[in-house]
Amino acid sequence: MRAVVRLIRQSRAVYQHHHYYHSCNLSRRHKPWVYSNLTRRLPRYYDELAVFGLLNSETLRALSVDAAKASTGDASRAGPLIEYERRIAEGELMDGDMCQVGTLQELQRLFDELVASADACRLDRYSASEKSGRSRWLWSRFMPQSTYSPVKGLYLYGGVGTGKTMLMDLFFDQLPRNWRKKRIHFHDFMLNVHSRLQKHKGVADPLEVVAGEISDEAILLCLDEFMVTDVADALILNRLFGHLFANGAILVATSNRAPNNLYEGGLQRDLFLPFIATLKERCVVREIGSLVDYRKMTSAEQGSYFVGTDSSAYLLQKFQQLIGEHTTARPQEVEVVMGRKLKVPLGANGCAYFTFEELCDRPLGAADYFGLCKNFHTLALDGVPIFGLHNRTAAYRFVTLVDVMYENKARLLCTAEGRPLELFDSIVTVADAQHMAPRTSSRSRRSDDLDLCVDNELGFAKDRTISRLTEMNSKEYLEHHMAMLTGKDIAEESSKANAVTG
Fold first, then answer.
1. What is the spatial distance between Cα 452 and Cα 339, in angstroms, rounded to a whole number?
2. Gyration radius of the chain over CA positions
3. How high is the pLDDT of residue 7?
4. Which one has a higher pLDDT value, 183 or 61?
5. CA 257/CA 330 separation, integer angstroms
6. CA-CA distance, 285 to 232, in Å (whole number)?
7. 413 near 354, Cβ under 8 Å?
8. Which stretch of 44-53, 138-147, 275-284, 411-420 has the lowest confidence by average pLDDT?
9. CA gap 423, 123 in Å, rounded
10. Counting beta carbons within 10 angstroms of the beta carbon of residue 81, is it exposed (0 to 12), middle (13 to 18) or buried (19 or more)?
11. pTM for the whole thing?
12. 202 backbone φψ class: left, alpha, beta (φ>0; ψ -120 to 50)
């Protein structure tokens, strides 16, 4: 697979090299952005290169020689495809599969189109309008206009652990710093939308104002884990994104669900269907068909997920070790969102302790869990149960909690009644339930799983949660967590030092 990527990279370099010296005759002092501008002139050239039979040995030798001569320039801004190969070569990523390469070509194509159309898309934050969202809304009452982006976005979907988030982050990291762009988890994005709607109560169309504010801040939106389960979100998405797209917004999203399967079986889904049509109109839809779960290819377990009902005392012991042997954890209260507060049974030194009932059997949601992660980097959770029909709501909350913690790279220590796969054994989709063996005369009702929970959204979400729980207990994840904490400590010390000297 690396050979394929390398050939694409070399061919791009050859094209850039010849175009640079023979067509433009640009001087060497030009910045690497000229390099990127040249590549966009031939946006579909690597599709043609995929037909390798058209390249004979003489051509390949020429490509190799010319590629070696071509200047690489600022590789960190050459796009996600080249950055992907660099990370593999340096051992930062494992070698992926052809499904990832195909997705990278789509991301590279989008990257090149955005660079080529940066002015038309109004991506530069310094040349964009400074009108606030409310001012834009007032101005639009007199001068109604819509400015759809000339570039379509990208909607990536596929199974868990196939690298969707990694690829989108790689794409996002390659974008110029001066662009109006934002990368955010879908849960967090919708919480932000609802918070803005509260602020603009009384306006004739608050969604239009909110969309104006969002598109003023970021015209390119990268939303991770696009998943609609809440009816309040479902009912506003079409109008919200209708306004965003009319303002020129470009959407890049990842999801476990194909567009047609979003909010499947949800309340009043007929009102949600127009959004699916809008999404497919404004985005190229791409499936990552890999069957590999890269999260499960991490190192061995690191001892933060304990199975058994008798592990509570050990969890408390581990919690005490993390906060410090001479530190006493006490009940705390932290602010989460819009003035709401969350009671923490025990907390100290960035670590919080909850029982499962206290955190997932109460009417809490993503906003509470985001607030928790902003105040604590580590969570000890005691007593995660086997999920089924009797505790389906708690299962939804647990899935959301794991999503939020994973997004914030928080550390989870927990005791559970079973391993991650066993926790969701009784959660199935409608399709799974239809393939289960029907009851026969030799199979009585008593032998049926009476706690079987047939739920499409939860059935799809469970694979992601199992995958993430596995990764969150790996050496690599915990090293990343510690590096993040170390970086925060250094930043805080630097900030304090600057405050003193200032």
1. 38
2. 25
3. 54
4. 183
5. 42
6. 25
7. no
8. 44-53
9. 45
10. buried
11. 0.62
12. left
